[in-house]
Prior knowledge:
The complex is a heterodimer.
Chain A: H1 2-13, H2 15-23, H3 25-31, H4 38-59
Helix pairs in contact in A: 1-2, 2-3, 2-4
Chain B: H1 2-12, H2 20-24, H3 34-44, H4 49-73, H5 85-95, H6 107-127, H7 133-138, H8 148-157, H9 164-185, H10 187-197, H11 202-210, H12 217-245, H13 250-277
Helix pairs in contact in B: 3-8, 4-5, 6-8, 8-9, 9-12, 11-12, 12-13
Amino acid sequence: MAHFEKLYHKVLSDKHFREELIAHPEQALQSVGIDPTPEVLQLLKNIEVAVTALEEDLDGSSATIMMT
Amino acid sequence: MNLAGETLKWIARRCDVQQLESYFAHPEAMPLFALPWWLEKSIRGEVDLDFQVDLMTSGAHGYLFIRMLDDLMDAHEVDRACIPALHLFSLEFQSAYYRYFPYGDPFWDSFGRSLASMAEAASVDSGLQEISERDFIEVSARKSAAAVIPLAAVCCRYGRMDLLPRWERFLSLFAQWHQMRDDIVDWSEDYSSKQETGHSTWIISEAERRKPPGETLPVWMGRTGLAWAAEVMDGWMREIKGLAEGLNTLGLIEYLGRREEMFSRKISASIRLAALCEGLLHL
Lengths: 68, 283
């Protein structure tokens, strides 16, 4: 359970880890001590599409302050 | 010149020194340059560009002084060779005002009061281990008190000191929102840092107080904490926008709308992400 809580924490807070999880899921899971079983990989697949869609909102804007 | 080179290296760790203006004009940075601009425009309908450039010069150096001091207080790495830059940051921060306000001018009372308030808040904050809501409001958010100084300069220059209290009240509340926003975005980093330094933020302290036994802090943040923080921020922004309505500046109203929207999108995305990841905790 502790490993999955660590995974939860990293997905929630670490953009680079999220990118790694999408690009190289087995390696990313193993880096937090989780065996990349078909069940886990399927759950990640379900998350992946939504995470990608959320990434722009998670990142924020790149415009500057307008002084008018 | 050794000091300049070493200081640029320190600045370069934070931003692109070739485009320093982008750092200060970042949409989620404290609007140090924009606030006195909007205030002067609200008084006169236009701005004195030379005056505003002097305020920006002062503001940039004041910010760098505070930034380096914060790094030193937080035991972040600061090369010894660039620490004497503090003298020059301080000089450029203050001397920009000499042209406008001679010795004895009431501006210097505001200057001294704001600086002292910020220094006291930073000193108290450095010793806080667990932070209550009251600690946060009275101390943490007051670390931006020096941002009142260019506003006081505008008010003094144009004989409108009557406006300063409402701008100070606005800035105090907005600084609170701004600091909380930073603490929400950086919660994970601050949580890790707390394990090493013992220094906390309000949201981390609140998470430790509120989370059920057996639930880790990161899990509480995902399930409950982010939504709780979003509600706190909503309430504050309603009050901030109410205050801003009375300041006679459309630029500020538009800015607040953008800040609110940016934060709302970011935290809503984080909450949705946490909900999506809930399944990971049941494997």
